[in-house]
Amino acid sequence: MKLPVFVLIAGLVAGSLQAGVEIDIPAFGTSLGGWKDASARTVDYELSGSKYRTYEPEITPTPDGGIFVSVRIDHLRGWLANNDHAVLEISFAADGELTSAQSTLAIQGRTISSDLIRASADAGGRLTGVDQAVKVGTDLVADVSSKLLREKIVEAGRVSFPAAIRHNYNLLYQALVVHPVALPVNTDGTAVEPSGGDAKDTDEAIGASPTKLEIKPFGVPKK
Q1: Three-state DSSP state, 125
Q2: CA distance 201 to 23
Q3: Using CA of residue 212, residue 215, residue 218, residue 223, what is the dihedral sign?
Q4: What does pTM read for this prediction?
Q5: For the purposes of burial, counting CB atoms within 10 Å of the CB of 40, is it exposed (0-12), middle (13-18) or buried (19 or more)?
Q6: What is the pLDDT of residues 69-113, one digit of tens each?
Q7: How far is the C-alpha of 106 from the C-alpha of 85, rounded, in Å?
């Protein structure tokens, strides 16, 4: 049975508007120092004189077309000591906007969890893009650091654990890839004109990779 022309066109237009967002796993690993090998997707590195290990992110699609990213980070304390662990969780919308972040630390048998930091309205209006990501990251690390301080933890590698989380947060955001959205076309093949807004709004709707964050992790000198 042949479908009406308008049904076929509607289906093509709907399919063309499906945006895609993902994390460039190889780029993320390279930015940390490089994955060890194909079978052991981890990378070891140093920050502020302490050693950490990041595991390959677990990525799950969300019902709204975005993704949920979970990353395990270990604080390597040496052969005779148990490692500390952290989990960084970030959610992205289908258009690449960062919507929320949360982190949990397991130290000395204690669990320290941050609040769920959501992207929200600010005094000057809703933040978007890099500004939003910077604010969420800053609030996340501030929350984790304050709770860590209340636990009276003083070991250097543990005190700088929030900085390692922020380091991974920054690099994950930079590894985010937003696939372009194809604009719908009319029956004669011409592009459908936007119903409102300017060229800048159209460009944002099409999608682009996010701008790199300029925030530096604690203890890393500026170049």
Answers
A1: strand
A2: 24
A3: positive
A4: 0.74
A5: exposed
A6: 999 999 999 888 899 999 999 999 999 999 999 999 999 889 999
A7: 5
